[in-house]
Automatic annotation (TrEMBL):
<keyword id="KW-0378">Hydrolase</keyword>
<dbReference type="GO" id="GO:0006508">
    <property type="term" value="P:proteolysis"/>
</dbReference>
<feature type="binding site">
    <location>
        <begin position="210"/>
        <end position="213"/>
    </location>
    <ligand>
        <name>substrate</name>
    </ligand>
</feature>
<dbReference type="GO" id="GO:0016811">
    <property type="term" value="F:hydrolase activity, acting on carbon-nitrogen (but not peptide) bonds, in linear amides"/>
</dbReference>
<dbReference type="InterPro" id="IPR000246">
    <property type="entry name" value="Peptidase_T2"/>
</dbReference>
<protein>
    <recommendedName>
        <fullName>Isoaspartyl peptidase</fullName>
    </recommendedName>
</protein>
<feature type="active site" description="Nucleophile">
    <location>
        <position position="182"/>
    </location>
</feature>
<keyword id="KW-0068">Autocatalytic cleavage</keyword>
<dbReference type="GO" id="GO:0008233">
    <property type="term" value="F:peptidase activity"/>
</dbReference>
<dbReference type="Pfam" id="PF01112">
    <property type="entry name" value="Asparaginase_2"/>
</dbReference>
<dbReference type="InterPro" id="IPR029055">
    <property type="entry name" value="Ntn_hydrolases_N"/>
</dbReference>
<feature type="binding site">
    <location>
        <begin position="233"/>
        <end position="236"/>
    </location>
    <ligand>
        <name>substrate</name>
    </ligand>
</feature>
<feature type="site" description="Cleavage; by autolysis">
    <location>
        <begin position="181"/>
        <end position="182"/>
    </location>
</feature>
<keyword id="KW-0645">Protease</keyword>
Amino acid sequence: MSRYTLAIHGGAGTILKEDMTPELEQAYFDSLQQAMNAGFAVLEQGGSAINAIKATIVILEDNMLFNAGRGSVFTKKGVQEMDAAIMDGRTLDAGSVTGVRNVRNPIELAMEVMTNSNHVFLSGKGAQDFAIKQGIKLEPDEYFFSQFRYDQWKSIRDSDTYSLDHTHQALEEMMRDKKFGTVGAVACDQAGNIAAATSTGGMTNKKYGRIGDSPIIGAGTYANNKTCGISCTGHGELFIRAVAAHDVSCLMEYKGLSLQEAMDIVVHEKLIAIDGEGGMIGVDAQGNAALVFNSQGMYRGYKSSDGANVVAIYK
């Protein structure tokens, strides 16, 4: 039995201690730990990496603090459009959805795409129709409404500006400048199998049906038992251009680098070279975890069968 490990993130960006109240900081710590505990319990009981990360993401999607599921931001049209992806490193099976509405847990829909659709990537109305066919839980618009997200959108809805999750104008008490509010989880189970998943509500005031890196296999999400499982959070356009998640795997497979070395190169060299801000979490088949970011902070944590339990926010 190999060491088993779970790592999570709740977004990266300009996250500074001086912008955080003690109560909000504690709420983030507690929420990250709760999600991590849910996924790790699956691993402890001999469950698969894929089921562990799904359990983790569901908890994060149900939490208003994070820009995914219930906490998703408003688009230009004043609605929530959500993206999610999941990948099984044992089989290289994957499922993704983009532009879905009223789906309580987009990660569950992505899992259904992977296991029951014969496809990898579904979008918009087609993904919605598939969700209904598969009996995925839907919620009314009111379920996804939060006043601070609404105020944030209202402050920029009449402009061509888009915002990466929390902005200074609308959320001075929460965050400064920018935060990339994706959630993600990666795991290595007792059998040494790897999985990765990512879920997001995208950008505030986004238009033209914009899609970021989160649901794109190889860009924001990737898993392969030979190398690693990766979930990214950041300015999606740059992560797509860098094919960031898959690049970590390639550096490990072709150059023989360790997980930490490969992630450091992608995050601190390749992404920075194209002004790509954000971070990523990763695990390998030996149960090693790495949490790397080039921004001011990243909501993050990992828990391992060797007794490690870390939750952190700032640099």
